[in-house]
Amino acid sequence: MAATQKLSGCRLPPLPTIGEIIKLYNLKAQKQLSQNFLLDTRLTDKIVRQAGNLNNAHVCEVGPGPGGLTRSILKAGAADLLVVEKDMRFIPGLQLLSEAAPGRIRIAQGDILAYKLERRFPANITKTWEDEVNCEHRKPPTQPSLSHGSISHHCQKLFHNPRTSLCSKTKRRCGGGALHSAGAAPDPAALQAGREDCQERFPVPEETLPQRTRDAVPRVSAPRTDGGAVVQC
Ligand SMILES: C[S@@+](CC[C@H](N)C(=O)[O-])C[C@H]1O[C@@H](n2cnc3c(N)ncnc32)[C@H](O)[C@@H]1O
Q: Could you tell me the superkingdom of the organism this chain comes from (predicted)?
């Protein structure tokens, strides 16, 4: 499929820039959640291209933050994007994005380390770790696939900022900022070890959105019944 055709089908309507979203919601990066934000759309597009062909794919993005990579994933044609974000402050900005791409984003607010990812995708596209091991990274998917409860090891390499995402104790990768889509080959043992080691680095945050921020975007308080609903996990 020609790139122009693909992009024109997935183009997003005009939105505030990521920088504006950060200012609007006063989103200061929190060190304990490894937060740093990608603002350059050329860079986020390039990163997302590394995940292979996302056209019509089911994708899980862990730690979307203000949504820079999220926008690029949508532009790349993902049909079903589940974002799992631990920090509640980002949810209103993600809901704006969800309204710009109706029915294509599902927002889950919670900790990926405790999240039952496999329950959130159709059973017929899920694969076991063993099935996934032989998949070639970057190979365009013949059909959407998803590993049970996984964050792709390869994609963590691609999408994590190495300075902030390595566990300080073990130097293993962990936590948010990762993207998983069809075709990635994870390393379950390393991943599991990384998760266990990093549990203590991610205490559940208790921040709530300041009232003035909620008031700034009234649409976010309306209950949603479509794919853009926020699910607490
Ligand atoms: C490095 S920032 C990346 C933000 C965004 N993807 C970007 O590129 O601008 C990591 C994100 O992961 C989130 N995060 C960290 N640990 C998490 C966890 N255990 N579960 C879900 N999200 C997590 C943080 O709140 C933050 O939004």
A: Eukaryota
